[in-house]
Amino acid sequence: MTGLETIVEQILQEAQKEAEEIKAQAARNADSIIANAKKTVDKMNEETREKVAQAEKSGSFRAKSSSELKKRQAILAAKQSIIGNMLDKAYDAMVALPDEEYFQVIVKCLEKSVQPKSGEICFSGKDRKRLTPQTEKQIEQIATAHGGSLKVSNGNCDIDGGFILIYGGIEENCSFRAMLDANREHLADKVNELLFVDNR
């Protein structure tokens, strides 16, 4: 997952401004909620002074507590939205990498997934067309170094990026989408740590 983590970190700087704007908007919305709650309390002035005083002690406090909760919920939702957007951007950026960088990521992922068996590696039609003899040689070398062998499948896999390993008819999904989904919680924590470090 080195490739995914690297791309996530690369886009954090760009995302910082967007994150601050969304958090500011959430805070403004929460302030509006608080203001409306105060207006509701002010309407109680039509009642007796004693009732108004009681309302300020109880009703106003409850309204403020409720609005603070809504504020925290709005900021949390904004954070989750930002993190989700960052991971989606990381995925899109990974799929769109230039050929050389793209297959460097493929090779790194393969080193972590290859098994000491004879099998096949399947790519999407797009990736198979741009696969170079040099990359095919790297694939063979990695498989051999792990005590196995791999040949590039003549068929195409229905994936956007990454690859699928096939050993004895059993497929191991090493597509970028599958790897992102499998590591989404870890990556989300990493994005949260880097992007919202000042709010921990």
TrEMBL record:
<dbReference type="GO" id="GO:0046961">
    <property type="term" value="F:proton-transporting ATPase activity, rotational mechanism"/>
</dbReference>
<dbReference type="InterPro" id="IPR038495">
    <property type="entry name" value="ATPase_E_C"/>
</dbReference>
<keyword id="KW-0406">Ion transport</keyword>
<feature type="compositionally biased region" description="Basic and acidic residues">
    <location>
        <begin position="45"/>
        <end position="54"/>
    </location>
</feature>
<dbReference type="GO" id="GO:0033178">
    <property type="term" value="C:proton-transporting two-sector ATPase complex, catalytic domain"/>
</dbReference>
<dbReference type="InterPro" id="IPR002842">
    <property type="entry name" value="ATPase_V1_Esu"/>
</dbReference>
<feature type="region of interest" description="Disordered">
    <location>
        <begin position="45"/>
        <end position="65"/>
    </location>
</feature>
<keyword id="KW-0813">Transport</keyword>
<dbReference type="Pfam" id="PF01991">
    <property type="entry name" value="vATP-synt_E"/>
</dbReference>
<comment type="similarity">
    <text>Belongs to the V-ATPase E subunit family.</text>
</comment>
<protein>
    <recommendedName>
        <fullName>V-type ATP synthase subunit E</fullName>
    </recommendedName>
</protein>
